[in-house]
Design goal:
- The chain is α/β, with parallel strands linked by helices and 186 residues long.
- The protein has one domain: Rossmann fold.
- Helices cover 35% and strands 17% of the residues.
- It is built from seven helices and six strands; from the N terminus they run βααβαβαααβαββ.
- A six-stranded mixed sheet has the order 3-2-4-1-5-6.
- α2 packs parallel to α3 and α6 crosses α7.
- The longest helix has 21 residues.
- The chain is globular and about 50 Å long.
- It starts with a strand and ends with a strand.
- It comes from Lachnotalea glycerini.
Length: 186
């Protein structure tokens, strides 16, 4: 059995301002560093992380002495025209309203749609699990983004919930257990 800890990166300035932070490569803010340092997590055999600074820095704090593999496909959703904007800046935008009305199905203008994100993330997750099995890992951590974690949790879930219900707070996440090809979710 492999335990898979899905952990969202810690807090950034953009998170505090409630912005859509996708491809913007932000460092953790002071509050984010303090939050990550306050967490006491289970030791794992290997860590897989998005290449973006907020994930790399979170992984370095949470798992300081554990090998970290950078997986480009774990990056956050490309928010296109909505990148680094918040609700106040997007309120009244026709494309934003369409995105809300379709629960994201319309995709982000000049960015990714949810199917593209799910396909990219599913392939990354499968690669990670194969790698963990080949390396005989008993437990791994995936330090990634809210959108990435929502995609993994919604695609490989036991409970049927709307994708957006899987959103987690910074430095929190889920535990998945994979046993002989079966997946359990906690």
């Amino acid at each position: 059995m492999i335990k898979v800890y899905l952990v969202r990166h810690s807090i950034t300035k953009g998170n505090l301002e409630k912005r859509y932070v996708g491809s913007t490569d932000e460092h953790l803010c002071e509050e984010g560093i303090k939050l990550a340092k306050s967490k006491k997590l289970t030791t794992v055999d290997k860590v897989y992380t998005s290449p973006l600074l907020r994930c790399v820095e979170t992984a370095e704090i949470l798992y300081p002495n554990i090998y970290r593999a950078i997986i480009p496909a774990l990056r956050e959703t490309d928010f296109g025209d909505f990148e680094y904007k918040n609700y106040e800046e997007l309120n009244g935008n026709v494309d934003y309203q369409k995105w809300i009305d379709t629960k994201g199905a319309s995709g982000f203008p000049n960015g990714e749609n949810l199917e593209e994100v799910d396909c990219r993330v599913k392939n990354a997750f499968r690669f990670i699990i194969r790698d963990a099995v080949e390396n005989q890992c008993e437990s791994i951590a995936i330090v990634a983004h809210g959108g990435t974690i929502m995609s993994i949790a919604s695609q490989f879930r036991v409970e049927k919930m709307d994708k957006f219900e899987y959103m987690v707070k910074n430095c929190e996440g889920y535990l998945l257990e994979i046993d002989g090809g079966s997946l359990c979710y906690q």
